[in-house]
Design a protein that fits this description.
With 301 residues, the chain is mainly alpha-helical. The protein contains ten helices and seven strands.
Amino acid sequence: MMKKIISLAVATAVLTACSTVSMTGRKQLNLVSESEILSASLSEYQSYMKTAKVSTDANATAIVKNVAQRIAAAAEAYLTATGQTADLQNYAWEFNLTQDANLNAFCMPGGKIVVYSGMLGLIGNGADRDDELAAVIGHEVGHAIAKHGQERASQQLLQQMGGSVLGAVVGGASTQTQQAIATAYGMGTQYGALLPFSRKHELEADYIGIVLATIAGYDADAAVTLWQKMEAASGGSNPAPFMSTHPSSSKRISELQKSIPKVKAEYGAVYQQATAPAATTTTKNSTKTTTTNKGTGFKIG
């Protein structure tokens, strides 16, 4: 009986709150409103920026902002071309480089992008610097436009719903028994659902990231060299796969290598089209110049 009640609660929530990630077609759970996520994420971002050390390196900051702006433009172009213009109202892009030695970056729902200086240090100043940085920022923006934050919050809510139903069923049991069941339930959902889904989010963001990088005119192959550097930097210290919120570097590299040829074939012409030079045609009595809008003339699909 207990299992039937829990199953009914889960099934009801899933059936009434499903949406689709447009770039991958994956169905996702959506129990939390976007306004709640945007408000919470903005609050978190503001709290972070109050204590973060914003980089004083003007050159490095300019590099980050240039790449981030191009990735943001690619994201907007994609959303516009796929009929998701309503989502654009929720974005107020902001780009920051902070002084932090950790290998990290993030993009909050709503478009607040932060790159840590440690990530730039890992990437270095080679010929593929901007391409690798585009893979990093594209990945983080991918989390945002795929609404992974909203989905994760929905998963947590669904977990609480299940826990509440379970708690009601065993309400007459001893405190120790209730605590034991609650602990078992939490472990079961944590390692059985939430973390694997987190790994799925990471791989999905990797894919969206190389799409955005390609649309923005960067070389998607740099995502592979980026993760090779990340793998070398980790020194093989990745946690056990079933306990990790992130896939192993080797798994990411393998999936990227499978996806990159398809992404280049499907989206490679988009950037060239958007940045095509002006075409001039001359007739007997007049000359007409037609210019493609650079950075906004994407045609996707």
